[in-house]
Amino acid sequence: MSFPPIHLHDTRRRAVVPFEPLEPGKVGIYSCGPTVYAPQTLGNMRSQLMPDLLRRVLLAAGYDVTYVTNITDVGHLTSDADAGDDKVEAAAARAGQTVAEITGHFTEQWATDRRRLGCLEPDIRPAASEHIAEQIAMVQTLEAQGHTYVIDDGVYFDVSTFPRYAEFAGLDLDELEATGRIDNLEAKRHPADFALWKLSPPGVTRLQEWDSPWGRGFPGWHIECSAMATRYLGDRFDIHTGGVDHIRVHHTNEVAQSECALGVHPWVSIWMHNEFLDLSGRKMSKSAGDVLVVDTLVDAGIEPLAFRYFFLQAHYRQQQEFTIDGVRAAGVALRRLVGHAVAARDEVGGRVDGGDPARTEPFREAFWAALADDLDAPKALAVASTVARSADLTAADRWSLLADFDRALAFGLADATGVDAAEVGGDDVGPEAQALLDERNAARAAKDWGRADELRDQLVAMGFDVVDTPEGPKLRRR
Ligand code: AMP
Ligand code: ZN
After folding, report:
1. Of 32, 171, 196, 343, which has the highest C-beta tally within 10 A?
2. Ligand that lies nearest to the alpha carbon of residue 247, given by its number in the listed order
3. Domain 15-278 grouped into CATH 3.40.50.720
4. What is d(CA 159, CA 425) in angstroms, rounded to the nearest whole number?
5. Given the CA of residue 275, which atom of ligand 1 is nearest to it?
């Protein structure tokens, strides 16, 4: 199969466009990373899973991918309006811990949870606090070109010097001018002007501060992404990702300062933004106290990969409502898929090249074409589950496809636990469950897959997994 042409939605052009790498065969991706002063919620994890899926699709298509995601360990202010304290510093002071303890702890939580959700390790994971020199250099370049001005509390980017400023997010700057003045920053020339470097107030020593040509202080938040992306991916690169909340301010500002400092346009070929994971109809957010994390699922008896399956059930550009029952149901569907895959795998001794192309290729093409079409994961997942349960495919067909699909799905099918005979069946199954299993076997024999699935779901609700064994389906206590 030749890989289908990849199309992705570009926020800047507001359209799904063909993906054309700057350099043939290579892709550079930058994702805005975690702010490590609080736990990374399942909402934040949606913004990790989206680029992970993207990266896996590009790898499957044969690209040499460089994936960079940063750690925001300085410069994120308690207000988006360039006012307030550095959130990392504030969290450290509140907890009576050092900055390193706070950032180390939450960086570890983020990295661990990424792994538990099946995300590939970043190729490069720079921390903002370790790239102060690059950030200062970029601000100096902007200053030399007349894009900045200095007021009491810092160095600011003057948006009037970048005529394209409002274009990226379709902003109405006059509207902002009329309504957006922020009390304590009267000295800004325009409400959209943003901090490039924040100065420590006279007589105050911050926990995190550095010397700069303008005085001691710390970098503005936006400049860190521009400086680190440029350092690791060059003056222009292919894809930048983040949550939709970043479009209007953070990414608009990244574009302004980067295109000015580097003299390029467009700085990034394709901007991809994931929609929110919602809780009760609004964005799940740590600042609103929604500390739902991967451990919350584990505590409820749900395996982390269930959340990956749940993520794949919605398109990344659609809002997705989080419920624990929704993720639990995704976990059941995942176990079903894994059960089928493991049975097929073990039946063919793990051989991936045993399928008959006449039967497998239409499925293979449908799966990758769905993902190549702006990451249509729900469609791809539907193909995978059809394959897993198809009676028209042999075990060799099924495993050849599912092993291939798992490069994107990342359910760990190659190593998933097979059937442990000792755990299966036994005296504790009971007559009621046994009767449902017999009925399910009869439904399968009659090729009534819908009924068979219903019966399996009833068994799952009673606390059993249906496990396919060489002697036929058996029950295993969950
Ligand atoms: P933060 O640590 O809040 O700066 O967020 C890190 C990343 O997570 C950003 O790309 C945000 O856009 C994204 N994000 C935050 N909350 C959500 C949510 N509820 N759903 C999806 N993405 C989110
Ligand atoms: Zn960023």
Report:
1. 196
2. 1
3. no
4. 69
5. 21
- Residue ranges per structural domain of the chain: 15-278, 300-477
For residues 109 and 39, what is the distance between their CA atoms, to the nearest angstrom? 7
Most distant pair of Cα atoms in the chain: their distance: 82
Write the single-letter amino acid at 9. H
The ligand whose atoms approach the alpha carbon of 252 most closely is 2
**Cα separation of 46 and 40, whole Å?**
10
pLDDT digits (tens, 9 = 90+) for 264-320: 999 999 999 999 999 999 999 887 888 899 999 999 889 999 999 999 999 999 999
Cβ–Cβ contacts within 10 Å for residue 339, how many?
Answer: 22
Three-state SS for 241?
A: strand
Q: Which fold would CATH assign to domain 300-477?
A: Four Helix Bundle (Hemerythrin (Met), subunit A) (1.20.120)
Block residue for tokens 């720079």: 126
270, 242 Cβ separation under 8 angstroms: no
| Cα of 49 from ligand 1 centre, angstroms | 11
Q: Are 86 and 206 in contact (CB under 8 A)?
A: yes
What whole-number distance in Å separates Cα of residue 198 and Cα of residue 225? 16
The alpha carbon torsion through 146, 148, 151, 153 (nearest 10 deg) reads: -150
For residue 246 and ligand 1, the question of a CB distance below 6 A is answered with yes
pLDDT for 422 = 36
Give the whole-number percent of the chain exceeding pLDDT 70. Answer: 93
